Amino acid sequence: MNQPANPSPARRETIIEVRDLVKRYGDNVVHDHLNLDVYRGEVLSIVGGSGTGKTVLLRQIVGLERPTSGTIKVFGESPAKLKPAQLQALRNRWGLQFQRGALFSALSVIDNIALPMRELRALPDNLICQASLLKLQLVGLSAKDADKMPADLSGGMIKRVALARALALEPELVFLDEPTAGLDPMASDDYVALIRELRRELGLTVVMITHDLDTLVALSDRVAVLADRKVLAAAPIPELVKVDHPFIREYFLGDRAQRALQALPAPSRPEAPRPPSGDT
Ligand SMILES: Nc1ncnc2c1ncn2[C@@H]1O[C@H](COP(=O)(O)OP(=O)(O)O)[C@@H](O)[C@H]1O
Ligand SMILES: [Mg+2]
């Protein structure tokens, strides 16, 4: 099962702090005084209906979008307030695997992985190539895949290469936006196993958007639910399912969810909803 991340709340180190975040596009209020903390070493998953602002939240955390108001701190710094060079230095501390624009189609696998290191302009190219090959192996691919082009890869391999690139600069934190979307169940399970292993070996903090229940249950220490323009609750799944809210009921207590939740250890598994009888 999951690593026991942050067993004692007193010893938790907050590495992402979102306070009173408001984000508007014209009249469209996406976030309205949203708060969220992410602790070092945890896997925090973000769920919410389509269009609730999950991607926009990540884009603000990593400094690709500016909040309308409120503050976001990552490792104690506010991406929106940094000068470009400072923001770049901060960005080097995390890896991103976003849903779209996964790989550059004109670059080979190895060149895709090498790209963040080349952009640093700090390392000789033979070292970059060696490091890229190591990253390729880290995500379960081999040197014979290095010269393939993205068009020749399966969906699962593309996700792995994108992950290898996200890990290129040895980040302490990674952001994954729908990492298993579009994968068949087996590739998805393999990917989940890979994340779990990397997290254990590298001590990564993972912030992941997913709507896939199996991925969610298998990896998350806590789940943050985005609804009503806020983070409604951020808690381990067994606590979360006790929150009385239509989205949570629908999402966690339906038949599919109940099947996925069987993967939790029995003592922490939430109870199935009771039939609407008069019994207590
Ligand atoms: N660049 C943008 N300009 C205007 N509206 C945007 C922009 N990006 C996202 N939105 C809007 O913000 C809302 C949240 O989008 P998003 O974060 O992508 O949702 P999701 O939770 O599905 O990831 C949607 O209503 C979307 O239309
Ligand atoms: Mg999205």
From TrEMBL:
Location of the ABC transporter domain: 16-253
Key word Cell inner membrane present: yes
Superkingdom of origin: Bacteria
UniProt keyword Cell inner membrane present: yes
InterPro entries membership: AAA+_ATPase, ABC_transporter-like_ATP-bd, ABC_transporter-like_CS, P-loop_NTPase
Listed GO MF terms: ATP binding; ATP hydrolysis activity
Pfam families, alphabetized: ABC_tran (PF00005)
UniProt entry keywords in alphabetical sequence: ATP-binding, Cell inner membrane, Cell membrane, Membrane, Nucleotide-binding, Transport
The protein's name in its UniProt record: ABC transporter ATP-binding protein
